[in-house]
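Slide 14.
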Amino acid sequence: MELKEHIIIGGAEWCAFPNLNIPAIKARVDSGAKTSSIHASNIQKINKKGEKWVSFEVHPIQDTRRITLRCEAKVIAQRIVKSSSGISEKRYVIQSLMKIGNYQWSIELTLANRDSMGFCMLLGREAMENRVFVDPANSFLLGNYSEEKIDELYQHIKDIRSGLRIGVLASNPKLYSNQRIMEAGKERGHEMIFLNVDQCYMKLDSTNPEVRYRGGSSLNNLDAIIPRIKPNLTFYSCALIRQFDSLGIFCANSWESISKSRDKLYSSQLFSQNGIQIPITGFAKSPLDTSDLINMVKGAPLVIKLLEGTQGKGVVLAENTKAAESVINAFKSLHANILVQEFIKEAAGKDIRCFVIDGKVVASIQREAVKGEFRANLHQGGKASVIKITAEEKKLAVKAAKVLGLHIAGVDIIRSNRGPLVLEVNSSPGLEGIEKATGKDIAALMITSIERQLGWQRELIIRLPENEIILQETH
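Slide 15: predicted structure.
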């Protein structure tokens, strides 16, 4: 019936959207939120008679993906919306008839990723204005649905999955690399979910183990995880990756390979054991061995590295023996684990970053340090340029990644008088410098790597006026 007076609804209610062919979806009622939103994934722009429309997937039943609906709607606007977590994003806005209980009226909905939320839909105050009073202490005042009723309503719907469900396990959704990976996955038709490491937790149980996300939503139905781990979160992140692996969820890099790459001493030992040339490196605990440690790496100048440093942090150049002794002993007095490494003068502040995916160097750049610095690190103002690397350097980069067991790696190589040497290997290599310098879509190559590993084939749908042709992309 049409609404003629105010109705009372609870803090959660079942809604339906006949125009979108959604017979039932549970909504959280929130008068504190201005706009209403629905969880939408795999959003694709389409054109209908010169008008802008969107096609998108909806998983209408909470905490399950067994039902997937493909919906289409006309775009009425695009707006910047700030989520409850304080993050602003640009969203498509559609309009649809909503049925709630025996009432119905047209509302605006923004298409949003609500994976981290408990409900697939949020009913905001704009949709309720002058129509509804909310009783937040109660729920389903206009009727509740049993599981049997839900099965009945959706019995004609098959589980349609046009893409994979891929989680990016990281800390900062605004980081260039994370944004690019999310974009690349969505462009290839996958559902991309950003997972903040701090907000993931696990249930250890012999019969029903789980990984859950903020609010209690299960992550057990992911197809793959792309770890992008900060050094200070290595321990907890690797524990999460182990759990995902035990659930049969593919991880782009395993927890073992990430652990090896983050331990500079262990990775250096593995390189030397497998015939991979590195700068002469020393490690000692006692200050009594400092003098011999310096001589062992050909004396000053030399490089001193913290074992768990990254992006050029925790790396010091000691230009003479006295300075080297002071820095080494200062670190040791703080109980910091350090490596002492030969300084390759002839490199002249340049090194090479090779991006390796599945045993192949897909891109390489030369990084040059800014004046006054000895390390060529882009995070510290270094310059990047395209470089053609030798067959020997390619072979070295691929072998270094393989020894650590990394599917995806940034291998840093330095050119010396005795040939190329591996400086270190990064298990979460940045994309910004190498994509901008080379013009290559590295993020898309990472996504296609996962597709290959999982044997996934992309369905390309071409819409014609009267029919629909489905083409299948093969690898």
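Speaker note: The domain at 7-153 is CATH 2.40.70.10 (Cathepsin D, subunit A; domain 1).
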